[in-house]
Amino acid sequence: MNAREEPEPAGPDASARPPLVRELLLVAGFFLVYKLGRRLAAGHTGEAYRNGHDVWDLERALHLPGEGSVQSLLLHGDGLAHLANTYYAAVHFPATAAFLIWLYLRRPAHYVWARRILAAVTAAALVLHLVFPLAPPRLLTATGLVDTARVYGPSVYGPPRTDGLSNQFAAMPSLHFGWALMVAVGLIAVARARWRWLWLLHPLLTLLVIVGTANHFWLDALVATALLGLALAVLRPPGRTTAAPATGAGRVRAPRTPAEDRALTGTGR
Predict the structure, then answer these.
(1) What are the helix (H) ranges across the chain?
(2) How many whole angstroms separate alpha carbon 17 and alpha carbon 115?
């Protein structure tokens, strides 16, 4: 006997997938605008160092744990510091790109939502980079922290004054952490398995790496979390697909087999 199933209603993930060329142009255009904006903020060296000392003092006033307590764990061996630097340099962009590609292919509606969230957080971060340039703790002698990338490698940055590829005075907020947290949130939103909460290990490990390598303050991650929370509150995820009710006018009946027809005819005699 052939089993028949009730057809499932179209849910939000059954919506049309955005055109690939348009999405590639959007992402590439936004990335270029962001890189240009970071370069515009790169010249405020003196202000960035002053803000760095202010953030360091504020963290001590708030009794936040010292970044050095995390870095000391990495300095027990060259291999661990090198691994943390590699994670910082190699995971950030590929992990976020893989997340968006997977959503685009498997959860189109959630892809649009996640792309908007990441764009909103990144745009807000760019504004903060422009109005509040911030030197990372590795560049401040007052912190006593080691620039692990320079000492143990690999490093994605050159000397701050001659680095023409990146703005090293854009520490707040930390997009490394903000993007990693969004990857975890997005995967938890679309997954159904119990172990989906393990995706939170990605932002947790990212947090330990960015602090332990002295690339960011604790407050950089806290500000990124606040921006992401605000974006998530404004841009809600697509609703879950729900099954059609099995009773009432919406019920779909499977056609009876000839054997069932004969049985029903027999009972009416």
Answers:
(1) 20-40, 45-61, 67-74, 78-90, 92-106, 108-131, 148-152, 175-190, 201-212, 218-234, 258-267
(2) 13
Q: Look up the pTM and report it.
A: 0.80
Supply 225's token pair. 């979390």
Q: Between the CA of residue 77 and those of 80, 99, 138, what are the distances in Å?
A: 6, 32, 19
Interatomic CA distance for residues 39 and 113, integer angstroms: 28
What span, in angstroms and rounded, lies between the C-alpha atoms of 18 and 110?
A: 11
Q: Which residues pair with 157 in a beta bridge?
A: none
What is the per-residue pLDDT across 157-172, written as a single tens digit (0 to 9) for each? 876 665 555 678 889 9
- Which residue type is seen at 11? G
CB 62 within 8 A of CB 149: no
